[in-house]
Amino acid sequence: MAESSEVLVVSAPGKIILHGEHSVVYGKTALAASIGLRTRVRLRSSSNGATRLHLASLDISREWRLESLSHAIPIIDGIRNPAPPQADSMLILRQLSQSDKGDIEDSALLVFLFLYTHICSASALPGLDVEVGSDLPPSAGLGSSAAYCTSLAAALLAATHNISRNPSNGRWQQEDLELIDKWAFRAETLIHGNPSGIDNTVSTFGGALSYQSGHISELKSMPTLRVLLTNTNVPRSTSTLVSAVKDNVNKFPDIYKPILDSMGAIAVESKRVMEALASGTLPEVSVACNTLESKDDLFCVLETLIDVNQQLLMALGVGHPCLEQLCRVTRKHGLHSKLTGAGGGGCGFTVVPPDLTTCRQMGYLPNVQSRDCTHLDALPASETPG
Ligand code: MEV
């Protein structure tokens, strides 16, 4: 454990999914990138026989006496291979995490207790003082829960000396990142049931990546793609939306599976076009333009793919009138938008054409803002965990 005077600070970013939300749950390729909004954990030892958690953005503080947690400590098979949560210890942890504030709050407390009792158990539960703050709006499709799980897992693994930063550059080693990712994924299952794993993976490894069934490939040759994020401020639940899509797929597989296939194909095509944009070579075939003569043509393909995917997501049943409004308003100004994350509200993004030097030049912003949306600015991908 960290010395009592020592404060350990870890942060992890949120994400946007460029293409592949929902279809990634069915094993299709998805493209995602980390964003500049982060969740930060500050952790220090406490010697008063209790562990305290303060979640600033949810306005919750809770304290548990260590003896009340002792019978919830699971028997785990080492720290390197986190197994699915065990029913008996989760039953106790669920009772200890009731907040009577709401589901988001209960899940946040449960995730903390799960990671804390599982990661710290080997060293006999230490008293901790943990503070969590976040730039990420909750339930908005920007991976706030994954950033929470990732930063907590990293902080607890670091506090128990299961991972350590490389002294020369201050970064975690690859095997440490993989361990953080495994624990963050287990914690995510407590919130989302059966997530694809893309959110915790982006939050852990950062940058831009392509993801399929647990396999990641970093998108090294990414063009500088600027996006403007707009939060519709319509809250929604990822697990509810994912299970509504699942119901539809189960009821009408011949109708919904081709939509998921198309979404996967869009992600693959989009990756190809972005690589071509970055390298300056034009691909042979394209879905959108008759001839490909310049970078502008390639950008036009990217925009078309965004429009098509937005329509497919609406057909899947995860649209929302506010997201449609965002697309309509931006289209009037020649710009292309789509939802990001589970949909049903939350955030959408608009691709910023290379010739627009500042977001403020986009005349549509006042229109979007007057409809209760929040403009979150064009965000570059960022590294993590930090
Ligand atoms: C949530 O950010 C993305 C979804 O595809 C769910 C998942 O991948 O687990 C909707």
Would you mind describing this structure in some detail?
It is a single chain. The chain is an alpha+beta fold. The chain is 40% helix and 20% strand. The chain has 11 helices and 11 strands. The protein has helices at residues 66-69, 87-96, 103-120, 144-159, 174-192, 198-205, 238-251, 253-279, 295-316, 321-332, 365-369; strands at 8-19, 30-45, 50-55, 60-65, 128-134, 208-212, 215-218, 226-231, 337-339, 347-352, 374-378. Strands 1, 2, 3, 4, 5, 6 and 7 form a 7-stranded mixed β-sheet that branches. Helix 3 (103-120) crosses helix 5 (174-192) and helix 7 (238-251) packs across helix 8 (253-279). The longest helix is centred in the last third of the chain and has 27 residues, at 253-279. It starts with 7 loop residues before the first strand and ends in an 8-residue tail after the last strand. Mean pLDDT is 86; it is low at 285-289, 363-373 and 377-385. The structure holds (R)-mevalonate. (R)-mevalonate is lined by residues 17, 21-22, 24-25, 192, 195-196, 198-199, 238, 242, 341-342.
How would you sum up the global shape?
Answer: globular
Task: List ligands, each type once.
Answer: (R)-mevalonate
Structural class: alpha+beta
Note poorly predicted spans. Answer: 285-289, 363-373, 377-385
Indicate the proportion of strand residues.
15-25%
Alpha carbon gap, first and last residue: 19 Å
Can you summarize the main beta sheet? 7 strands, mixed
Measured on Cα atoms, how large is the radius of gyration?
21 Å
Q: Helices and strands, in N-to-C order? A: EEEEHHHEHHHEEEHHHHEEHE
DSSP helical segment count? 11
Multimeric status of the protein: single chain
Name the average pLDDT: 86
- Based on DSSP secondary structure assignment, what is the total number of beta strands? 11
Helix content: 40-55%
